[in-house]
Every structure is written in structure tokens, then in C-alpha cells.
From TrEMBL, chain A:
This is ABC transporter permease. It is found in: Cell membrane. It holds the Pfam family BPD_transp_2. InterPro entries: ABC_transp_permease (IPR001851). The chain crosses the membrane at residues 12-35, 88-105, 111-129, 141-161, 193-212, 241-264, 284-308, 320-342. Its main location: membrane. PANTHER family: ABC TRANSPORTER, PERMEASE PROTEIN, GUANOSINE ABC TRANSPORTER PERMEASE PROTEIN NUPP. It comes from Candidatus Terraquivivens tikiterensis. It is a multi-pass membrane protein. Keywords: Cell membrane, Membrane, Transmembrane, Transmembrane helix. Signal peptide: none annotated.
Automatic annotation (TrEMBL), chain B:
The keyword S-adenosyl-L-methionine does not apply. PANTHER family: CARBOHYDRATE TRANSPORT ATP-BINDING PROTEIN MG119-RELATED (PTHR43790), GALACTOFURANOSE TRANSPORTER ATP-BINDING PROTEIN YTFR (PTHR43790:SF9). CDD domains: ABC_Carb_Monos_I, ABC_Carb_Monos_II. It comes from Candidatus Terraquivivens tikiterensis. Residues 4-237, 256-493 form the ABC transporter domain. One of its GO terms (molecular function) is ATP hydrolysis activity. Keywords: ATP-binding, Nucleotide-binding, Repeat, Transport. This is ABC transporter domain-containing protein.
Amino acid sequence: MGITLERRFLLIRAALALSTIGLAFFAGIIIISSVGKDPLQAYYWLFQGAFSPPAIPETLIRATPLLLISIGLATVFKARIWNIGAEGQFYVGGMVTAILSILLKDAPPSLAFPVIVLVAGLGGALWALPPAILKATYGINEVITTLMFNYVAIYLVSYLLHGPFRDPVSMFPETETINPALWAPIVVQGTRLHVGVLLAFAVVVPLAYFFLRWTAFGLKLDVLGSSARTAQYANINVTRLVIQAMLISGFLAGLAGGFEVLGIQHKMRLELSPPTSPYGYTGIAVALLGYLNPLLIALTSFFLGGIINGSMTMHRMAQIPVGMAGIIQALIIIFVLASYFVEDKLAKKAMERLKLW
Amino acid sequence: MLAAELKKITKVYPGGIVANYEVDFDLRKGEVHALLGENGAGKTTLMKILSGCLKPTSGFIYVEGERVEFRSPSDALRKGIGMVHQHLTLIPTMSVLENLRLGLVGQRFDMRRMLTEVEDLSRTLGFKVRLDSPVYALSVGERQRVEILRLLLSKARILIFDEPTSMLCGPEIDRFLALLKSLSYKGYSIVLITHKIREAMHVSDRITVMRMGRVVATLDKDEVRDESYLVELMVGERLVPAVANARPSHSKEALLTVKNLVVNDDRGLCKVKGVSFELYAGEVLGVAGVEGNGQKELVEAIAGLRRPVYGEIIFERKNSYSGRMNYIPAERMELGVAPTLSVAVNSVLRRFDDEEFVERGNFLNFSKMNEFAKRVVSFMNVRTPSLKTPVKYLSGGNIQKIIVGREILTPSEVLIAEQPTAGLDAKSAYQVRKALSELASKGVGILLVSSDLDEILELSDRIAVISDGKIVKIFEKEEADPVMIGSYMLAGEGLGHNVRATVSTD
């Protein structure tokens, strides 16, 4: 046998990930054709808007909240804790940031900025805490609680933006623009690439990779995800682990919301997430497509960030609704889930060929 | 006249475990035929072959003299063979009627006819079922009767029951066994899979004893003089201890003390009813008993996986390095491994807080982990392509070896070994026994829970017999005698009431 089994497993996985994306786009061709548009032209503009050199900085900007959110999701998904609440945690992070920025507008920025960023994360973590406690102590299904918490968060934010924190001179439900001294510093002049993009790609990704792979904490998450009863047998404090993982997940989603406000919007708005592909939900696809591996997630968030931007270009240039991007994302999720199953089958076949018994 | 006959049935599972080897079995019309044997003797496998759930590797099946091949349970049901599995297959949220209706998929359905049939059947068999009540509201006994009804509606003439009384309590058992008798009087042929000797003796016309995948004997009930003869057939002839068991006599230093322990199972039934014992340093304390008498709950409570209702478990860590309690669980796959993770990780599964593998509290030392995993793999001769392979791709036997090897090689003060050699090949089993004996000589206290009486006799310094949740007797090694142990094992088996067949007179 020319290659080792591990390498064979990796090849299977890579081939499946690529065919997943391929299949999604192929299904997209059928759908675009069926509404009477030219799929080639549509995809041309999609890629122009996503991955052509001038589009790259904006794609990175889109990718940043996706990246932060999906790394947090990867942390909990490893343990098979299904946090669907990143969207709400993201909004809470954004709202907390805007409020604090308004309160601290006269404080020295070098002091206030890191505090605001930290509190944004803590806000997200706080929002993840009640579902985490319910899950860890009473076994209440986190899918339902985190999902419901999204609605609570978004309507709460909506209330705050329509009421107490509404900018009196704006026509829209949004806060006043925050003091430019508190904006996230731009790292590449002439673009909107801010320090949060750098932090996400250059600090959070390697840190998360190390943390999930080389620490006992990461390994315990894997064991819990593999079998909950085994985790108990392995002397793992499951209650504590579930809460810790959920707090990390919420923190990163809150952080994403904070940087979106400080770096891009410069105010809290009701459309902090793109309505057709909300970051909190799209992050689920990003994390799954990246096999819960932070390095791969950096790639997949860039890819899906590009799709979001590209779909807008596609809409402008080829009159195809932006919802198309949503359809492609949904198809990717479905094919990814199917490919997990296929991967298992193929791996078993590869093992059988070794005839170990 | 034979209702069914199995000839030279051999079943090899993928993974190489031979569950049945050249087994012959026949079932007469209208008899209750008990299939008796220890866990893992191959009883269920054999009957799953007869009922179409499994395909034999080789061998032939005859029904009413005609050779048949089953591709599915519904094939077998068409030939009149139905099986009531150990874990019932009704859908809890649906009503009894809906569940009965589900059993008839593929037939033309006539509600009125079904209702009359249900009524006829329940009258002749003398039980009532509430057709509109949801299954979750029924007792286990009632559910079982619904399962029977479902098979009878499908015109099954051969009924196979897999450990039907394991979920029932006293009076329900009697009622169930009476029902079996009356079914047989009505011409149904019945196979009763069981490991309870008294049950087999009470209700059956013939008894077939299986051991290690083979049929040891088929006896008419009248041929059986006493129950201990059946015990002997079930567990086999006594072998000379294979492991030299010349340990210095153990100390009287108690490592583990259990006081008045009361433990419930998942359904809230009391399974451990006041157990007290001490485990001394350097001894093997064997716990003998028929499966299901509270061993599982006792062990889970000691291992900290189940909260006792009452009582104390005192385990003092004397030595900070080896001061741990290792545990080889009987539920290997469900509890003992993280299936999606590698052989290396699974080799250190219970040591994520151990400084040897986790430095400064959180950083994994992969080279140390791999080193230890290599020791486990070579000690137990685990067959795996590499240490990185997820264990779920290994065969069942190799997964067992990883668990047993890990718990034996990890330094400990107390080791709970639950069925440590079940499912292992002879060589590995010997290796494990030898290792257990050596550990005890080094001062480790070993609690050995096994349904293999040979193993217990071979290794133990003392033997505690557990029956119906109580330790009924503790033998010293010198006074231990298989027949005596067998009779204590049966002491609390809970068939206090006489079985009376209720035969309706029409």
C-alpha cells in the first residue's frame, strides 16, 4: 500500500469537501436556469464580486464576523453541543458595544477601546450562559433555547434602537454614530480592513487551532462529542465543560458583533447581519464545511464571505436575487451533512481492505 | 412432528467472533423449549437466525419440514415465526391499536376483522388490553402482551422470547410463564431464551443448553434430576487453574469499604438492596451471580457513575501517584471508548488530568501518550493500522483489548474488572488473567465481577455471591465449591410463586 491510512482518510475528506461545493454550485446552475437566467453569466459576476483582486479586502471584511462566530461554533460543535444562538450573541455584542461607546465617548480611546472590545465579548458570553446552564444542569435541549434566545436578543435590540438609543436625527432605527476616536483602527490604508480582521485571522485562528488540538480542554470536548456517557466514565466534569465551551462560543460571537460595530458600521443598526445570510446562521455552515478545524474554517469563512459579496454583485449585474446565495449555502450544509455519512462509509471500506481480522 | 429445525448452523460475525458453530436445534409442535446458557453463549444469535433477523454463515433452516431461507424478519413471519426481542419494539407514543396495526404492514387491512381477532385472542388467552391507551402508559408486562398479540395477529405459530422475564418483577413473571404454558396448550410452539435455570425448569418441556456457541445438551424435562446439573452444563467442566495463583495471603488493610449500599436502576427499581463488604489490598474479590442481580448497578455506584440511594462507599487514596480506581466496564462500546477518537487518545481516556500526559494542567504531551498507547497495543496484541486510527473502525475484539489493556497498565490502587475476558480470544484472556493475578500480588485490590464462574474460581481469594441485590455469602478460596456457589446464586432468583397454567376450557 503506497500511502498510509491517515493520508487516505485525508484524501477522502478533501475530495468530499470539494465535491460538496461542486454539487451545490451544480444544483445552483439548475435553479438559475429554471428561472430563465444564464448561469454562466451569473457565476461570472458572483466570482468577480467575491474573489477578483479588488474584491478581496471586502471579502475579508465579510469573512471576519463569520470566522469569529464559526470558530466559537467549532468549539461547541466538537462536543456536539449545538449552539444555534450565535446570531443573538452577535447582536448582543454589537448592542453592548454601541451603548458603551456612547457612554465612554469622552474617555481616552487607548483605554476605552480594549475595554469596549472585551465587554462586547462578555455580552455575547452572557447571552450564551442561560442556555448553557439549562443544558448542563437539566439537560434541556440547547438547540431550542439558543434559537429562542436569538429572537429575544433581536427584538430587545430592536426595542432599544426604536426607543432609548435611537439617534434622534436618523430616519432609521439605529444609534448615533460613535466617536471616530473609538473606531477600530484601519490596518491597510485605502481599504476598510480594520484591526479586528487582523486579530481574527492572525491571532484567533492559530490560537484556536492550538487550543482545540493540543490541550486537554480540546480533547475533552472531543470525548464529550464522541459519547456523553464515555465522558462521564473518563472523569470529565461534563457540566463545567459544557458551560465553558458555550461561554467561549458566545464570547467570540459577541466579539464579532463588537468589531462589526467598531470597524464597519460605526453605529448599531438593525441590519448588523446581512438579512439574506445572517452571520450567526451562516457561521454554522462555515464551521461544518471547515470540519471544525480553525485553519480550514479560515478558508471556508473567506469562501462564504465571498459568496455573500458576490451574490450582491450578481444581483446588480445579472439581476439574480441575492437569495440565490442563501440557496447555495443551504445546499452546502445539506451536502456537507451527507458527506459526513459518505466519509464514514468510505473509511470503513478502506479499513476492510486492510483485513485486520 | 417438528415445527422447525436448524441444522449445522454456523454464524461468524464480521470481526471474527464465532457466535454459533455447527448448531443443531429442533422445536416440536406445541412445546415450550427453553434455550439455556450464559450470556454470550450464542442463544440470541441462534434465534435471530431462526426469526430472519440474521443470516447464518452456513447451515440450513427447515420449517414444517420445508427448507427455507429468510432475507428479513418479515420473511420469517410469513412462515409463521415471530420473535419478541429483549428490548421491546413498540412505539411508545402511539396507541396499542396503532402499534398492532403497524405490525400488519403489507397485509390488506380490515379494521373490523382485526378488532374481532384481537377480542377473540385476548379472551382465549385471558388478558385484557386497552386498545386506545398509549404504549408508554403500559407496564412492561402489558407491553409484552401487546407484542405477543401483534405476532399472533400476523398468524405466527412459532413464538420466540428473548429473556422475556428480565424486565418483569415477581408476580408478573408468574403471570407471564403461565401465559407461555397456555399458549403451548393451544398449539403454539415456543422458544424461551433464558439464563434463569428455575424458569426453564418450571415452564418448559425440553431444555437445550448452549455454551460458547455450541449446543451442550438437549434434555427432556424429566431427565433433569437437579438444577445444579444444569449449572454444570451451562458453565462447563472445571478446569485446573491456568494461572499460577500463588500469592502471599493478602493483608487486612481495606482499600475500599462499602456500607449498606442501596442503588436503583434507571427505571427506579431497587437493584442493590443493602450491600456491605471490604476490599483488601492485594486480593481478588470475586463477585459471582446470575446476570441482572444487581452487579451492574453495584459496580456503577462504586465507579461513581450512578448515585446510590443510601449507604457509603469509602475509597481512601493512600498513594497519590497510583491512588486511582481503574474500571473495566462490561459495556465496552457504550462506556469504555470514545469511538470517533484515535487509539492513542483512547489509551489514556481516563487520564486527562494526569501530569504524565497533561503538562501544567492543560497541555497534552503527545509523545508520552503515544508511548503509553504503544504499550497497550503490544501488551494486548491489538491489531490496528496505526495509533491514529479512530477506534470505531477496529473490530469489537480489538476495542475490548484496548480498554482492558489501558485499565490494567494504568497504575491503580483498586481495579474493578467487570467481565474482563468476555469476548476475548483464549490467548488474550489468559494474558488478562495473568496480569490481574500479578497486579494483586503487587498490592492492588481487585473487584472481579464475572459471569464466568471458572474465571472467578481461578483468580479470586474470596468469592462473594450476589443474588437479588444482596450478598448472600462470602466464601474463602479454600471453601469455595462450584456447586455450593451455584446454589447460592440461585437462592434469590425470585420464583417464589408456583406457576399455574391458566387454560381456558373452551
